[in-house]
Write a structure and sequence with these properties.
Radius of gyration: 21 Å
Number of strands: 2
Number of domains: 3
Distance between the termini: 39 Å
Strand order of the largest sheet: 1-2
Bound molecules: pyridoxal-5'-phosphate
């Protein structure tokens, strides 16, 4: 119950609104997951005191570079002259031309042969990992995360019955395979 009070305001708690909706698991996850957001807020607070150029925020992987002008120009062009059907559903894997472009970049970067058939577009890394875990995990399967890692990985694995096993790494960020 302490977890719930921590996350939601006391008034709702007293009214008994929240108690019936949250499972014990989600109530406990909410407090565990929130620390990364607290660190993010702390970064914001410190930036206000010391200046944005003095605080290096490694909390939630926010990009430090802005999208290129060309990208903004394209967005503007599409907003002004929308292509018919551009807000409709697409095939599950994503637009073929987008997947072909991603495959080309990956092939270039990795020297492996990627085709659009190897690519499925998802809503970000979290969405992609959830799809991957749903596809491959059986209940109780272990997922290895090399530490330091993004704390949400534990929740992603749990969503699909997996158990996150955190493995420490050395200065080179590689695990000690002998251990
Ligand atoms: C290391 C890492 N993995 C995954 C994610 C989730 O990514 P997305 O926002 O693309 O779902 C983040 C987001 O900050 C991240 O920093």
């Amino acid at each position: 119950m302490y977890n719930i009070v921590n996350v939601f305001n006391m008034e709702d708690y007293v009214k008994g609104v929240i108690i019936v909706v949250l499972s014990d698991k989600i109530a406990s996850f909410l407090t565990k997951g929130s620390f990364i957001r607290k660190m993010f807020e702390e970064g914001d607070r410190l930036r206000k005191i010391h200046g944005a150029d003095k605080v290096f925020d490694f909390t939630i992987g926010n990009p430090t570079v802005e999208p290129p002008q060309k990208f903004r120009d394209e967005l503007k062009k599409l907003a002004i002259n929308p292509e018919p059907g551009m807000h409709r559903y697409m095939s599950n894997a994503g637009y073929l031309e987008t997947r072909a472009a991603v495959a080309e970049v990956l092939a270039e970067q990795s020297s492996l042969s990627f085709s659009p058939n190897h690519i499925v577009m998802t809503v970000g890394a979290g969405g992609g990992l959830n799809v991957a875990f749903k596809t491959i995990l059986n209940p109780g399967d272990e997922v290895i995360a090399l530490s330091p890692y993004f704390v949400e990985y534990g929740f992603y694995a749990d969503n699909h019955g997996g158990i996150l096993k955190v493995v420490p790494t050395g200065k080179d960020f590689l695990p000690d395979l002998a251990a």
